[in-house]
Amino acid sequence: MKYIIIILLLCKIVAAQEKDMASINYSAAAITHNDTAAHTGLLDMKLRLPVYDNGKYTIITALNYKNLSLDGFPEHYGTGLQALSNQAIFRIKFSGTRSLALIAQVGLFSDFKAVSGDDFRYGLGFNYSIRHSERLTTGWGLFYARQFFGNQIVPFISFDYQPGKRWTISGQFPVKEKVLYLISNTVSVGLEIAGDNNSYRLSESQSQGNYVKVTQWAALGKFEYAFAKSWRLNAGIGSNFVQNYALFPDSSSTSWTIITAPLGKKPQPLEQVKSRGFAAQVGISYSPF
Asked: Domain span at residue 60?
């Protein structure tokens, strides 16, 4: 019984700090290449597990698996890309209202056909947060990622604000923001804007170790339904107003990118699939508290 209580308390910490303890999302998008219709599908699975907590210090590990299918793309891209990563979060609580999270991440990003040490990426960052009141929590932070296209810096401002009983504004600006209106105790609707800038290395045998750089910005109308106390269904429909899958040669680039904007001279891709397109998403998440 003692160990069950400890596990529940740690789970509560995960839920309070990271919102969802587990989630599965699937998104689909349409894209056009040389007047040819193509499609992508992304399966995104996340699991956050508590490791340690003594009131002041907390350690959380977050596992993430992604499977990106490419249908109708040029053969150089292959048919799918995958990512398996682990994020460790070390949180220091200074008081009842202030905390600092130190973040380290390592992951394998490739087509998973011939895995090697060159397929790994890593990142480091921090987030300092302040709870101003029961309705407002803000924070700011920075994340550095070593991508296959070079060095990426993502500065962000995090926020969770309830201006009224029915409104919620949350996310990390400018990477992902969401506004929700609570229609009832279980149903919410709103708008989400999210950006993504990732890279995946292709196998040496089939693609000479080239990599695919994925840049996306999407605007989705959102619907969320809460049920059974701890579960939440969510769906979205809208548009990818930026959508670019660029193929680059293998290189040890030292270039820098701020969020999705490269600094200095842009490298020229070998090929790219780029257009706006329809986007849809559906998912389910679990938060025990």
From this structure: 2-286
**Residue 114, pLDDT above cutoff 90:** no
Q: What is the CATH number of the domain that holds 14?
A: 2.40.230
Task: Quote the CA–CA distance of 38 and 34 in Å, as a whole number.
Answer: 10
234 token code pair: 């969510």
- Residues 193 and 201: their CA atoms lie apart, in Å, by 27
Q: Please list, in sequence order, all residues whose beta carbon lies within 8 angstroms of the beta carbon of residue 53, skipping any fewer than 6 positions away.
A: 9, 10, 13, 59
Contacts of 197 (CB under 8 A, 6+ apart): 147, 152, 213, 214, 215, 216, 257, 259, 260
240 near 217, Cβ under 8 Å? Answer: yes
Instruction: Using alpha carbons, list the distances in angstroms from residue 6 to 2, 51, 90, 130, 231.
Output: 6, 11, 18, 26, 22
Q: Is 162 exposed, middle or buried (0-12, 13-18, 19+ CB in 10 A)?
A: middle
| pTM higher than 0.85 | yes
Q: How many domains does the chain have?
A: 1
pLDDT digits (tens, 9 = 90+) for 252-277: 667 888 988 888 778 889 999 999 99
The structure tokens listed for 8 are 């529940």
Q: Give the bridge partners for 131, in sequence order.
A: 137
| C-alpha–C-alpha distance, residues 83 and 56, integer Å | 33
Q: Are 200 and 214 in contact (CB under 8 A)?
A: yes
Tens digit of pLDDT for each residue in 142-195?
999 999 988 999 999 999 999 999 999 999 998 899 999 999 999 999 999 998
Tens of pLDDT, residues 73-99: 988 888 899 999 999 999 999 988 999
